[in-house]
Amino acid sequence: MYQNIKGSSEQVSRSRVAAPIGMIARKATQLKAIATIPRSLTKRGPDWGATFQDKALRAVCDVARLMYGTTIHFASRLASHPAKPLSRPCETCSKLPKLLILPFFAICMVLSPMVLAGPFEGGKAAYARQDYTAAANAFREAAELGNTTAQYNLGLMYSKGQGVEKNDQEAASWYLKAAEAGDADAQFNLGSMYDNGQGVTQNHQKAVAWFSKAAGQGIAAAQNNLGIMHAEGLGVAQSNEKAVIWYRMAAEQGYALAQFNLGNMYAMGQDEIQDYVQAYLWLALATANGETSAPASRGLVAAKMAPAQIADAQFHLGFMYEKGHSVVQNYKSAVDWYRRAAEQGNVRAQTNLGYMYTKGLGIGFDYKSAVDWYRKAAEQGYALAQFNLGTMYAKGQGVAQDFVQSYMWLDLAASQGHAAAARNRDRVATRLSPQQVAEARRMASGKKSK
After folding, report:
1. 296-326, pLDDT tens digit by residue?
2. Would you state the torsion angle of the CA atoms of residues 100, 106, 107, 113, taken in this order, to the nearest 10 degrees?
3. How far apart are CA 259 and CA 249, in angstroms?
4. What is the DSSP code string of 397-414?
């Protein structure tokens, strides 16, 4: 769970003790922040009526409450409203002249969100000036009017003891109201409380149920925790395969704990799950995202890997940074990882590093360096690098223009099924004499025989 007010700049994360390889993963367990913007001022939980008349009558009550100064407790499951709301308005609504009721509906339907927003906005302002008692009172008023974000925020303040006496039972009660109305953060927090037996009787099945709802709305922390529940068999049947699925969903959102857990899962896994390249990759991303336990785990994984495996993982990291897959796109980081892999002889990294030089992405624009890296991969027989090198020779980029060399490299790539290389080779051939074509083919044949 997360600890701070939704929308505040400060955020504190608390979790279980860091787990090195060989131990179980880490859970997110802190409360999220209190919101500064209500995501739905009129969202209602399942206990609120769904008919237009009921909604209209509530709108009347919202405004009438302000006009007559009478407090209506909407959170009491319609205690003031019968099943047929138009036939029996509440005490405050009954003070309105009967002839004004229907016209007043339309006005109040417009004004009702403003009424709901009033105490909520007051709560935000009070919290910002650290007047937590006033903030809790304002959030309570908005919460009792059905504002789900205020319900969540009030639950948070009870969890922290801000403006109210710390009370986990009350926190769970308000989280439940917001969670049932679909608030993803409240669903996650409620799941954490059931997981830890905090304010409620510990119940892993209910924890899984609420985590699942939050995870379905994209909450990475909930996805991470579901991974742990499946890995440990808490509230669900134990399944490493499902744990990996949930960890990956969160990890691909850039969630460091899940990246750490996924890396450890790949490192510790058996049979098809164990994959040191994937382990190295995710632990490296967790390290970049500030997970302090990840560097040691990555070091342990690297000690079990062949150099070619490390280079392969580094190539994949470069590609992820280049394309912005599971990380914020960063060309400089892409170049750094490509270079590490390229210097170990990884042909894909050498080729991609050459491409980065041709575009000036994350590094200075430099055709000569591009040619050097393309050549390293091309000499190892990598078709894409051979195609790129042949193209550079044809255009005279980074090397002196040489159609014989261009034909040779394009022919080598074409012999491996590279269709674009075959087309370009045939175009280059129109610029060569028959003797030059024969020489280029002889050179290509010599390269193939090595």
Report:
1. 999 999 999 999 999 999 999 999 999 999 9
2. 130
3. 10
4. SSS---HHHHHHHHHHHH
